[in-house]
Amino acid sequence: METSTSTAEPTAGRDGGMVLVLTLLLTIVLAVIVLALATYAATALRTSRVTDGRNESNVNASAGLDWTIERLAEKQLAPADCDGSDVGVPVAVLPQAGTIAVACTNVAEVNGNPTVHLVATATLPDGTFRRIDALVQVPAASHVANVTQWSTDAPLSPAAASATTTAAPAGTTTTTAALAGTTTTTAAPAGTTTTTAPVATTTTTTAPTTTTTTVTPSGTVTCQLRITSQSGANYWAKLDIVNGRSTAISAWDVRIELGPGTSVDSAYNWDGGTPTPDKDGVITNSDLGWNGTVAASTTRADVSGGQFKWKGNDRTVPTCTVTSFS
């Protein structure tokens, strides 16, 4: 009986090699895909517009725009510089070739300081751009004319001392009648009679008294003239009034005199209307906008010694002397 012996060919080793080859090929394919995605993302980052929540922006222009805003803030732009046009910014601030346009508009006041609205836009050669909106306060020291000296023709601040006389209630008269006299008779061998005379009537009179109270002057009226914006050839002024007295301010007749031979008569009303006093009747801080105009060519020398005059029906608000102007 013949016995045949056959040896089976091993398959485990061959299958393992195929798995290794497939794994290597898959790794290579994945690496290629990841590299392609990374390259695409880097390109998109340079060329696409990214929304930052307020404006379209581009990372390439970030450094240049931030620098621009800082320089503009340091420049202390006056409202006259903010007429909506390009204020002029060097293009060298950009990390690559391109342009920056900055529109500056006087929009409001914050805490009494003129505030400008800056819109800076950087445009790069590839068409991408970044735009920044910023509100920049103009320092008050650069644009406030402090008016603290009163003129001699209306020295009404503070108010003169006043005396109030208060009369006491009319004198009173009180009459008290005594009890009737009594007679006591005591019987004795030689009888004795004792008589008590009646007590006389008493009259007391209280004389009226007068009280005089002197009121010491308190509180002052101060004001400052501020140039808040510029339109064409004219500045627009605003007058701040801080009045510590119980004074009503109304019926304005306004005139501004900015030095020898320079005067502007104005029929404008205060844009804030008649200020409303506090509950105690004292106007503590009234910001009254005066819509009068002052020629842009006016200089500090023209203003020196001039007067900003106004009055009410009762002449209770004095005239200010303008000591500075900007």
From TrEMBL:
The chain crosses the membrane at residues 20-45. Gene3D superfamilies: 2.60.40.290. This is Cellulose binding domain-containing protein. Residues 181-216 are annotated as: Disordered. The lineage of its organism: Bacteria, Bacillati, Actinomycetota, Acidimicrobiia, Acidimicrobiales. The keyword Transmembrane applies. Keywords: Membrane, Transmembrane, Transmembrane helix. GO terms for molecular function: hydrolase activity, hydrolyzing O-glycosyl compounds; polysaccharide binding.
